[in-house]
Amino acid sequence: MESKNRGFIVNYYTTANGTKLTREELSDRILKLLNSGGMTCGNIARTLKLTKQSIYNVANWMIQNHLIIKTKGDENVYIYSTIKECLLADLLYPKAE
To answer: What is the pLDDT of residue 78?
Structure first.
């Protein structure tokens, strides 16, 4: 019986300071950072002192869970930002609920 290759599973991300963060802790830090405005992956990585690949992995997970969105900026660089909720749209447009 063959086993399924699940790949490499990361349990935590290590910053340049040596601090170990779980995916949820890192996503909370990214959300706090993005509350001030949209940022590129490189800017997020420099601010949080992590590698870009770690930010890409966590950002993809956050996009799939509808926590942030990714849009293409002026210079064809992706910008990550929080989802802005519109209260008026919630009142006027019907929902499946």
So the answer is: 94
Contact 48, 83 (CB under 8 A): no
Kindly state the DSSP code that residue 41 receives in the 8-state scheme: H
Q: Is 80 left (phi over 0), alpha (psi -120 to 50) or beta?
A: beta
Mean pLDDT of 60-81: 92
More confident residue, 9 or 52: 52
Taking the C-alpha atoms of residue 13 and residue 25, their distance in angstroms, rounded to an integer, is 10
In whole angstroms, give the CA distance from residue 12 to residue 20: 6
The whole-angstrom distance between residue 63's C-alpha and the CA centroid of its chain comes to 6
* CA dist 72 → 8, 44, 55, 61, 79 (Å): 29, 16, 17, 18, 6
Enter the pTM of the model. 0.77
Asked if 25 and 7 count as a contact pair (C-beta separation under 8 A), the reply is no
What letter would DSSP give residue 87? H
Q: How many residues does the chain have?
A: 97
